Amino acid sequence: MDEQLTLFGEPQYDIIIGADEAGRGPLAGPVCAAAVVLPQDFPFELLNDSKKLSEKRRIEAEPVIKQRAVAWAVAWATPAEIDRINILQASMLAMKRAYLLVQQQLKEKGIRADILLVDGNKRPDVDIACQAIVKGDAKIHEIMAASILAKNARDRFMICAAKRWPGYGFEKHKGYPCASHKAALHKLGPCPIHRSTFKY
């Protein structure tokens, strides 16, 4: 764990909150974010960038993360919020919400976080030190874990959405733009979870 923290020089941080989001690119559905604090004895070999893990491996890793993490949380920004404040700001909002939930858990345990590390090149507005790391979901274990929780939670939401709004194929493409999704949109029109500010 120390090796990854040499990216930031001294001091090396004891309590890191890692955060990531899933769902910036889709035409439909919310954006989901997760925040995670991992213990030093976590089985880090289970982790990787969620996009590089098979669905099977992501699903296998999720309960281990939830059981072994010092703290974890998942939070959302809705399609309406995305349309109102734009997808970047909605992503930051979802990450801030996840961070605040984790901070509350840490506070209840008498633990103080040193820094929030987030994937990408933008930082949410939070009340502790925060570092944005490009490709952080391939470098920082806490961000990897957050990316897995966010991806899995959002996929489950979209599978449920497919039952509520059949015909769009949400269970397959999870709301991302693809030929079949765009064809369904032109045939059926948008449903309540489509992002009205996105180009179809």
Structure overview:
With 200 residues, this protein is of the alpha/beta class. The protein has a single domain (2-188), classed as Ribonuclease H-like superfamily/Ribonuclease H (Nucleotidyltransferase, domain 5). It contains seven helices and five strands. The chain has helices at 2-5, 55-68, 79-85, 87-108, 141-164, 170-173, 179-188; strands at 16-22, 31-37, 71-77, 115-119, 130-133. A five-stranded mixed β-sheet has the order 3-2-1-4-5. The longest helix has 24 residues, at 141-164. The protein is globular and about 55 Å long. The termini are far apart. The relative contact order is 0.22. The model is unreliable at 1-6 (pLDDT under 50).
The assembly state of the depicted protein chains is single chain
Mean pLDDT: 93
- From the coordinates shown, what is the CATH architecture? 2-Layer Sandwich
The overall number of domains is 1
If strands are numbered along the chain, what order do they take across the biggest sheet?
3-2-1-4-5
- Shape descriptor: globular
Helix proportion? 40-55%
Radius of gyration: 17 Å
CATH superfamily label: Ribonuclease H-like superfamily/Ribonuclease H
What proportion strand? 15-25%
